[in-house]
Design goal:
The chain starts with 6 loop residues before the first helix and ends with a strand. 28% of the residues lie in helices and 25% in strands. It has a single domain, classed as Creatinase/methionine aminopeptidase superfamily (Creatine Amidinohydrolase). This is Methionine aminopeptidase.
């Protein structure tokens, strides 16, 4: 289903996006060396509930996971890139951490992710991975707007990732959001310009470029959720929810 929001719903989406942004910013500042991932999940839960919102992950049980997810945020470390299940692990100096948060507030969802290195150590290649996903996200957003083909957005993202030398996995990518977390259209992280669905005002998209340093193959942890690079290499993931407007794209998160 592709959901087009009316102006009142887009205004509510802005509030949801601001909440997701604020929670992620707080969690990023509190995720330091020695922080337990279960504490990150607990803090997320407390802030979501205090805002009168709901996590989109607790009861999330898609066909590819061993659901329900049962936690309030995804915490992916180093070679984990997507759907990282919070567990009893204390962050170490130099860990590359991705926080991925989707929240529903007043019936509208926003979804965002950020990758960063914890502490002062800087593992080889970590900053380049993160920077590539951030640039790809910025270019994807810049390409989006009313009348634009979805393939133009995917092409913009993929051009940056490919130029940086990273393989691109197309199993998981961006997606539509609205009253639920995962909707059509799927937004692949590479594609052909001039193809696909024509973007319309009122459409919300979660764009999420993610890469693994030297592979495009994923493996799933025994927890049934956490997706890792098949080679054990570092990974990174950046994501924003945007709203297509009459004259472009607005970042909500």
């Amino acid at each position: 289903m592709i959901e087009i929001l009316d102006p009142a719903e887009v205004r509510r989406a802005r509030a949801t996006g601001a909440l997701v942004h604020d929670i992620l910013a707080t969690l990023r500042s509190r995720a330091v060396v020695g922080t337990n991932l279960l504490d990150v999940d607990r803090w997320a839960r407390e802030m979501i509930l205090a805002a009168g919102a709901q996590s989109c992950y607790v009861d999330y049980a898609p066909s590819f996971g061993r659901g329900p997810f049962g936690h309030h945020i995804c915490t992916s470390v180093n070679d984990a890139v997507l759907h990282g299940l919070p567990h009893d692990y204390r962050l170490a100096d130099g860990d590359l951490l991705t926080l991925d948060l989707a929240v529903s507030l007043d019936g509208i969802v926003a979804d965002s992710a950020v990758s960063f290195v914890v502490g002062t150590a800087r593992p080889a290649g970590a900053e380049a991975l993160i920077e590539a996903t951030e640039r790809a996200l910025a270019d994807g957003i810049a390409a989006a707007g009313p009348g634009v083909r979805l393939g133009d957005v995917s092409h913009a993202i993929g051009t940056v990732l490919s130029a940086a030398g990273y393989p691109i996995n197309t199993e998981f990518g961006g997606h539509g959001v609205g009253s639920t977390m995962h909707q059509d259209p799927h937004v692949a992280n590479t594609g052909r310009a001039g193809r696909g669905y024509t973007l319309r005002p009122g459409l919300l998209l979660a764009l999420e470029p993610w890469v693994m340093a030297d592979t495009d193959e994923l493996v799933t942890d025994a927890d049934g959720w956490t997706l890792r690079s098949a080679t054990g290499c570092l990974t990174a993931h950046s994501e924003h929810t945007i709203a297509i407007t009459e004259d472009g794209a607005e970042i909500l998160t």
